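Retro notes, item 3 of 5
We never archived the inputs for the NDP complex last cycle. Fixing that now. Sequence and ligand:
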Amino acid sequence: MATMKAVVVEETGGVDKLLYKDLPFPEAHEGTVVIKNHFIGINYIDTYHRTGLYPLPLPFVLGRESAGEVSAVGPDVKDFKVGDRVVYIGGSTYSEYTEAKVGAVEKITNDVSYETAAAIGIQALTAWTLVRESYPVKKGDHILIHAAAGGVGLLLCQMCRYLGATVIGTVSTAEKAALARENGADYVINYTTEDVVAKVNEITGGLGCQGVLDGVGKSTWDISLQCARRLGSVISFGNASGVVPPISIATLAQKNLKIMRPTLFNYMTSREESQKWWGEVFELLAKGVIKTHIYKIYDLADAKQSHIDIESRKTTGKLLLKP
Ligand code: NDP
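Structure as it came back at the time:
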């Protein structure tokens, strides 16, 4: 039987649970295509799946996104043919080939490389839905973005600048501060050495921010609430430092705050929603509003090292795997 390489999780845990293995080639069925992956996007969520923070039925092939070409189509599939250039958001992408439901596959035009498509994917869609739906950013707003030099963070900086907001980013190093500035942050605070609340008050004349976008979680949550302006919105979209502890809803009454905990997948539940958000993100890319910043491309066989790197806070922007 012909086999392909894939990164499999048989039991959850540390990076040693990432197994580089031979698996049977996937086949296309009704409503699916098989994609030959050229580049695979790494997302922080992959670490949550590996550790079991977000449980998946075991065993599974890790990964949520890839870009590549269609290599086989299911018997009833009319919208795709072998050779189509596509990007995919779904499951089992840390592999040479992935069977994908057609509803989660999007064609890419010839001017978008596979590398770029895999690099914008989930992170740009997440960032754009955050600033259009979760908290619609307005011209003149002050927006606080945690982990501003990360994958989602850099794109949020670019998008908030485009929307006319004053961007305040938090980061852990001077190098990350410089990168966040280059990508649209007007102010950058090192949240490992500086008093973020005092700095935000200084910048905003004591008023705080209309929108706070927090993908760091446990270590920043209290800071996020303190940095929000009266009537402001605090959007919690991730847990890079750990899960946000339970809060008493009454604390929100101190400033009439709104809080929200969105996921990208609940903004893209239908073909129509998916096409709308992909369409807008590709337009931002074509206009030069968003640019990819690729930290490193790892061999698929080195997926373990990519997880060590992203979890150790040394990466910036996007990490990719190449089968
Ligand atoms: P990043 O590239 O942003 O990596 C995480 C960053 O978080 C690090 O670089 C680091 O930046 C910061 N960080 C702060 N504390 C810690 C810690 N204790 N351990 C590790 N990192 C820490 O990853 P992504 O762009 O892929 O994702 C960013 C966040 O967005 C994640 O929480 C992810 O789960 C979330 N997300 C949510 C989605 C949704 O649908 N809700 C979809 C996509 C992503 P620094 O060194 O500057 O502190």
